[in-house]
Automatic annotation (TrEMBL):
Keyword Hydrolase: yes
Residue ranges of domain Acetyl-CoA hydrolase/transferase C-terminal in the record: 266-414
All residue ranges annotated as the Acetyl-CoA hydrolase/transferase N-terminal domain in the record: 14-166
InterPro entries per the UniProt record, alphabetical: AcetylCoA_hyd_C (IPR026888), AcetylCoA_hyd_C_sf (IPR038460), ActCoA_hydro (IPR046433), ActCoA_hydro_N (IPR003702), NagB/RpiA_transferase-like (IPR037171)
Family (UniProt): Belongs to the acetyl-CoA hydrolase/transferase family.
Pfam families, per the entry: AcetylCoA_hyd_C (PF13336), AcetylCoA_hydro (PF02550)
Gene3D superfamilies listed in its UniProt record: 4-hydroxybutyrate coenzyme like domains, Acetyl-CoA hydrolase/transferase C-terminal domain, Glutaconate Coenzyme A-transferase
Name used for this protein in its record: Acetyl-CoA hydrolase
Recorded superkingdom: Bacteria
Entry GO MF terms: hydrolase activity
Alphabetical keyword list: Hydrolase, Transferase
Length: 436
């Protein structure tokens, strides 16, 4: 189907005032989204269209498209950061786990869903391939479902499939699947990964955030045995663990023998591993982030990143240098789940510095994405600060121990003033040393 014909078909299905959703990151259906943005004036027919924005990977969306599109969403990462910088992205400061409920209730409108699917199986079922997340909720709510089928996508097991009867328009994909590239981890990231690997026990269940750091942690776990998977994001490193016989899911107390994920965020390796893999399923957000499921998971190790953490354990994962770059995301759900899991590890990891500025701070420069009451283990290349059950003064001492040495004196000075504001007393002598 040529681009002009596709645009005409989209115009016949999409109405002025509709809100359009599609999968985030690697799940973006490029054939459909590029046709939509390229012919947006004709498709919108003089009106406007709402566009929900998730994590970005392709550069499909541009600030200039705000001439027709009203951008709103929970994330401004990757290429979508330019939308936030231009002031055309309206942020939904919601926990990621709340999105499906907000969609199903109609609070977040979802009129049209653009989705990429695998070729149908012998039963005529197209899988959602690399993603479930909030897409099943959007599909349930949508008036129109438009799909592109890509033979290079894996057919994956999951809780939702589409048949011909579910799809209003099915077109062939014109582009290869999106890969989520990773840079090589630096020395700080490798040191952090070694610290975390030392805390994770054999048989633990893994939840990984996104980015280079979680992938570095996964790479440091090849000496472990019988690890399990229950995570939102699943990258190439997880596939490597499974192929090495490290990830078996054998000791999981929930979904024993089965790895669970929400989205494949990697490249060809993880797609190849997931294809028709009966030991792996994609599930929607209301399951991957379910507090009861997480709490019941065996030794859940929740490993998430941050932009900065203050001396009491408050986490900012959303704003850097005054620009919205992240999302509230699912970190709080997983950290709370790991805290309730028997033998669980609620972990927030970050390099101690960025461009010579400390990322361990006396006061956050952005919102509190994770409150200090949910802080567990904070990890930098200098060690692990275990804040569980710690008083404010103990937290401050332990956080100073994992800050970059060049910044510790100033942080301690600022910490005294902070504690006075909190009505606490600074403990001059060190508490338990930061674990190496």
């Amino acid at each position: 189907m040529d681009t002009q014909t596709l645009a005409s078909r989209l115009q016949a299905l999409i109405r002025p005032g509709d809100t359009v959703w599609w999968g985030q990151a690697t799940a973006e259906p490029l054939t459909l989204t590029r046709a939509l943005v390229g012919h947006r004036h004709a498709i919108a027919q003089g009106g406007r269209l709402g566009i929900f924005v998730g994590i970005g990977q392709a550069d499909t969306l541009q600030p200039a498209q705000a001439d027709v599109f009203d951008f709103f969403g929970y994330a401004a990462s990757g290429p979508h950061r330019q939308l936030a910088k231009a002031g055309v992205l309206d942020i939904v400061p919601s926990h990621y786990s709340h999105l499906p409920g907000l969609i199903r209730a109609g609070t977040l409108p979802a009129d049209v869903v653009l989705v990429q699917v695998s070729p149908a199986d012998e039963l005529g079922r197209h899988s959602l391939s690399v993603v479930h997340e909030y897409m099943p909720a959007a599909l349930d709510r949508a008036r129109v479902v438009i799909a592109e089928v890509n033979p290079a996508l894996p057919w994956t097991h999951g809780s939702r499939y589409l048949t011909a009867d579910d799809i209003d328009l099915l077109v062939p994909a014109q582009y290869p699947p999106l890969d989520l590239g990773r840079g090589a981890p630096g020395e700080a990231e490798q040191a952090i990964a070694r610290h975390i690997a030392g805390w994770i026990e054999d048989g633990a269940t893994l939840q990984m955030g996104i980015g280079n750091l979680p992938e570095a942690v996964v790479a440091a776990l090849h000496g472990h045995r019988d690890l399990g998977l229950h995570s939102g994001a699943v990258g190439d490193g997880i596939a490597a663990l499974a192929e090495a016989g490290v990830l078996t899911n054998a000791r999981k107390t929930v979904d024993t023998g089965l790895g669970i994920g929400g989205i494949l965020m990697g490249g060809e390796r993880v797609r190849r591993w997931a294809h028709r893999n009966a030991g792996f399923e994609l599930r929607e957000t209301r399951y991957t982030h379910d507090p009861e499921v997480l709490a019941a998971s065996h030794k859940l190790a929740a490993i998430n990143a941050a932009i900065e953490v203050d001396l009491t354990g408050q986490v900012n994962a959303e704003v850097a240098a005054g620009v919205y770059v992240g999302a509230v995301g699912g970190a709080v759900d997983f950290l709370r789940g790991a805290a309730r899991s028997r033998g669980g590890l609620p972990i927030v990891a970050l390099p101690a510095t960025a461009k010579d500025s400390s990322r361990i701070v006396a006061a956050l420069s952005g919102p509190v994405s994770t409150p200090r009451a949910d802080a567990g283990l904070i990890v930098t290349e200098y060690g692990v600060a275990d804040l569980r059950g710690a008083t404010l003064s103990q937290r401050m001492r332990r956080m100073l121990d994992i800050a970059a040495p060049a910044h510790r004196a100033e942080l301690e000075r600022q910490g005294h003033a902070l504690l006075r504001q909190c009505g606490a007393v600074f403990v001059a002598q060190p508490g338990p040393a930061a674990a190496a």
